[in-house]
Design brief:
alpha+beta, 2 domains, 3-stranded antiparallel beta sheet
Amino acid sequence: MSGPKPICAGCGVLMTVFGQPMCSECARMLTFAQPEPFCHLCLSKGLTLKGGLHYNKTGGYAGKCSGSSA
């Protein structure tokens, strides 16, 4: 007997079961999702960001930005 086969609402490829909108792989990825990159230095006053690096007012290196991909 074959009937309708629900497709995952996450990936749209794998099959799932009625009552479970996402496959187990997509549900696992949502559970272990990493937060967006956040940089405390970006919130510091007096620092500028150039090319993924922070500099102070006199042009000295203040640290790499942990929120940028550069």
